[in-house]
Amino acid sequence: MNDVWDALTDPTRREILMMLKKNDMNAGEIAEKFDISKPSISHHLNILRNAGLVRSEKHGQNVIYTISTSVLEDVMNILAVLIEKRK
Amino acid sequence: MNDVWDALTDPTRREILMMLKKNDMNAGEIAEKFDISKPSISHHLNILRNAGLVRSEKHGQNVIYTISTSVLEDVMNILAVLIEKRK
DNA sequence: TATATAATTAGATAATTATATAATTAGAAA
DNA sequence: TTTCTAATTATATAATTATCTAATTATATA
């Protein structure tokens, strides 16, 4: 759970998720969208994967990344509790 | 918005929010609940306040903290977009 | 007014994190 | 099998962050 929050803190990683929300992309395509080195993006992808926010699958020499939203439900639930009115 | 995510990353700060969800508390009461120095808690409270997640009001020599959830709606919305199915 | 209490600010430090470059691994194609 | 491309791993570094102790500020009370 902490891993999920930590993954979501970084703006680059949130943007990656936003992009993956629209379409699956491979690592190179993702890296192209940012002004950051490929290894650095690879690192961000790793953090997202460890948090369970993306999945990766190798196709030939490409690695295709897909968003995985199930863990986000937990985050939503926590927020819902916080927002919920005190009785 | 970044400030909100950053504020939410830290487990101590999330726990503070959970506590404040139940009741308003003053700085000392909050600090007592953790095994962390008072200045450190003060620092966390400052980050929460800058993110708009709490408000503080001085009553005598106590400072009473209250949760403020409106910014959390924005976070919820971002998560909702991410979770939303691709069409 | 002197002292005690609540909280914050100041300053230092250890740990974490985002980033880069260089090296490596794996697969595709000449 | 050599070479090219995609991606990751290894390593180093600068910046950020969480924490501490000490000092300060503000209020209350003896």
From TrEMBL, chains A, B:
SMART domains: HTH_ARSR. It comes from the Bacteria. Pfam families: HTH_5. Keywords: DNA-binding, Transcription, Transcription regulation. GO terms for molecular function: DNA binding; DNA-binding transcription factor activity. Residues 1-87 form the HTH arsR-type domain. InterPro entries: ArsR-like_HTH, HTH_ArsR_DNA-bd_dom, HTH_MetalResp_TranReg, SdpR-like_repress, WH-like_DNA-bd_sf, WH_DNA-bd_sf. NCBIfam families: HTH_metalloreg, repress_SdpR. This is DNA-binding transcriptional regulator, ArsR family. It comes from Flexilinea flocculi. The lineage of its organism: Bacteria, Bacillati, Chloroflexota, Anaerolineae, Anaerolineales.
